[in-house]
Amino acid sequence: MEGDAEIFDRRAVRLHRERAASQAGSVAEILQDLAERLLDRLDDTTRRFRRALDIGGRGVVAPMLRARGIDTISCDLSPGMAALNGGPAFAADEEWLPLAPASVDLVIANLALHWVNDLPGALIQLRQALQPDGLFLASVPVLGTLAELRSSVLEAEAAVAGGASPRVSPFPELRDCAGLLQRAGFALPVADRDDIRLLYADPLALLRDLRAAGETNAMKLRDRRIPPRALLPAALAALPTDANGRIPITLTLAMMTAWAPAPSQPRPLPRGSGRVSLAEALTRRSETPDAGPRS
């Protein structure tokens, strides 16, 4: 998602998030659980962070960082959503971030970058905002997220309207995420998969939660006409249910970890710098007598 290929309507993304700012409290429990999954990765390092940038945290991430003793400033495309963070905050487009180089040592982007057209460009800006050896943590929905909703909408629209229009955002594949980080100049990139299963007794509650989180359709090629009256009931009826009649909804997240390059970081040896060839190493191994099992 780069260059002139604009998949998302950024104005619509901003308006959806602005509208959701007054409703985000209704999904705070879900957002907090997802944020905790990402921030748990801070416990895997002995590094202590002083100043963090929270991108799109919806009023959840910044308080959690401050509880860890980290001075945090928040940014969101929506001024209303930025104001939820209870501390220093500003509104800005993630594709054009007004950040000074090396101004923070930690960047957290929890469910905040999947509506960005130029994701490689945004990652480069965030890497430049980090101090050397600063940490970047992000969660991004990947292929498999909302698969149940996508399937039911396509099925219903084919039956009701005889065709389908883009109604659920396209998601990248997990295998692409670490490559994006490396391409943006990050060091030691890692992308882990985290599958979350939500259960809904009422299908309308799912739609309300998506709206309250600002996650409604903002695709540039979305159909802007009023949908047929029968489409929504047909799509909701097509959602799968478990043995208890509840609707399972899948969130598949890429948990992305990477570091701003620094001279102190471990680096692979240059190609061809080894003093022993692979053939020689194998020969030596085959000539070494077996010492037997260790107790």
Q: How much of the polypeptide forms β-strand, as a percent range?
A: 15-25%
Order of helices and strands: HHEHEHEEHEHHEHHEH
Q: Assign the CATH architecture of the domain at 10-145 and 169-219 and 248-262.
A: 3-Layer(aba) Sandwich
Radius of gyration: 23 Å
Describe what you observe in this structure.
This protein has helices at 10-20, 28-39, 61-67, 79-82, 119-129, 147-161, 174-183, 203-212, 231-237, 278-287; strands at 51-55, 71-76, 89-91, 104-110, 130-141, 187-200, 247-259. The radius of gyration is 23 Å and the shape is globular. It is α/β, with parallel strands linked by helices and 295 residues long. It has a domain at 10-145 and 169-219 and 248-262: Rossmann fold, CATH 3.40.50.150. α4 links the parallel β2 (71-76) and β3. Mean pLDDT is 88; it is low at 290-295. The longest helix has 15 residues, at 147-161. The chain has a 7-stranded mixed β-sheet with strand order 3-2-1-4-5-7-6, sandwiched between helices.
